[in-house]
User: What shape does this take?
Amino acid sequence: MSPGRPVGSGLCAAPSPRAVQRTLLRSFGPQGWWPVTPAGEASPRYRPGIWGRLAQRQRLEVCLGALLTQNTAWTNASSALQALHRRGAVRLDRLVRMPAERLQRLIRPSGYFKQKALRVKAFSRHAAARGADLRRWLSGPLPKLREELLGIHGIGPETADSILLYAGLRPAFVVDAYTLRIGARLGWFRGRPSYQEAAAFLTGRLPASAELYGEFHALLVELAKRHCRKTPACEGCPLRKGCGHGKNC
Assistant: This one.
């Protein structure tokens, strides 16, 4: 097996992804991803225990959030979304018509606002051309839809899968830097797997459930924030006993 490929269960004593997901859920509880702004409120919030049930505006908000949180903290993306909400701009038709300079001002808190304005514009035009009904568009054949998203300016695999999973409620696993770090320390991956290799490893060992994928991804992020940092804080980590890295902390 090449150094960059995921480690199979027969080659290591790593805990299974399903066992890890269950342990983290017991330890941390539901995370309530993706945060959206409820009707009548001013900012996105997490909704533990609630999956799906998204209005059109909320689906669009998830898509915009996936673009705006690129290369920045979620708090910055959230500030940009709040600014868009205050101007009534979380609508495809308004985003398509909005002058680029105005959009840049609104999303400035997210950083890289000029590049991100181009990406928001590209996504909005594309989605509007598909009929503006995000639920219907994002319910199309999954492989073809993913390739379509990847063809939009500024959308890479992580952003595409975030849109599919959290806006489309489709079973697409989001692989981020936290997933790769945790997976390497647990023994899931050897070397540096590609995005697709890491995603295939996880989806091949988990039930094909969008809700499970979404919760697991959020739990991995929470684990990375609390314990599995660049410099790990293994004390109190719920996975320490089954983690080869943690045993040596």
